[in-house]
Amino acid sequence: MRLGLVTYNVARDWDVETIIRRLQAARFEAVELRSTHAHGVEPGMPKEAADRVRRMFEDSRVRLLSLGSACEFHSPDTAERRANIERTARFVELAHDLGCWGVKVRPNGLPEGVRRDVTLQRIADALTACGEHAQGYGVEIWVEVHGQGTREPGAMREIMDRCGHPAVGICWNSNPTDIRDGSVAAAFELLKGFIRNVHIRDLPDYPHRELFRLLGSAGYDRYTLAETPQSCEPGRYLSYYSALWRELVRNP
User: Fold this and answer.
1) Residue ranges of the alpha helices (H) in 38-111?
2) Which helix (H) or strand (E) is 215 found in, with range?
3) Which of 23, 63, 115, 216 minimizes the number of CB atoms within 10 Å of its CB?
4) What rounded mean pLDDT belongs to the chain?
């Protein structure tokens, strides 16, 4: 496994040059650029700007791994779901141009007054449509385990079973709802076959040692991306985080 960063929140105000410089210094190997943040890597950006971003990462030791969209598919409004599918398609096209592996999307809860199975099917249908588009560009769709009700491991497993598209997997999100009796083993067993990306939190606040052991036993050889709060000393914080992560991975 390798260590990367989600730019939500610690790097939300950094430009691309600062992201690369600080991540290289702290021995992070990859980054997921979150939409709406100061780096400005968004669908619709001029081609020359996207080409410049791609070259900057290719000339560095940091992989531009993925784009973190806020596209979501749980709404009971058909037009809203369709708009999010179209927005995801634009992220997929930009990810292809930038050389990214994936685009992160999410559900964001179970709407009141709508049957649970109906919402899960709507999410799955939208993901299938996104997966079809992404497959043509050689990009994956990573569904964040996210949202009240939808972040429950059982609900996410249902979504993935209903979707069943080879270009669609999950982004494990290190949620408190993963934990039962101090362990994430049961949640991991439900979802391990779908994991394409992993978000991790502050390392003492979650059973990361067990998670890393489970990921290793499942043959996971991709990235774990730190999604952490802002810091008044971000360089020192990231260096300490990197050191602790390496110790936990060495001794899971």
Assistant:
1) 47-58, 78-98
2) helix 208-217
3) 115
4) 97
pTM of structure: 0.96
- For residue 131, give the H/E element and its range: helix 116-137
Determine the residue type at 62.
Answer: V
Written as six digits, the tokens of 4 are: 């990367």
SS3 67: strand
Residue 124 has phi, psi (to 5 degrees) of -60, -40
Q: Residues with Cβ < 8 Å from 156, sequence gap 6 or more?
A: 143, 145, 150, 170, 190, 191
Which of 168, 121, 163 minimizes the C-alpha distance to 142?
Answer: 168
**Radius of gyration, CA atoms only, the chain:** 18
* Site of tokens 């709508």: 114
User: Which distant-in-sequence residues (6+ apart) come within 8 Å of 217 by Cβ?
Assistant: none
Residue 30, SS3 per DSSP:
strand
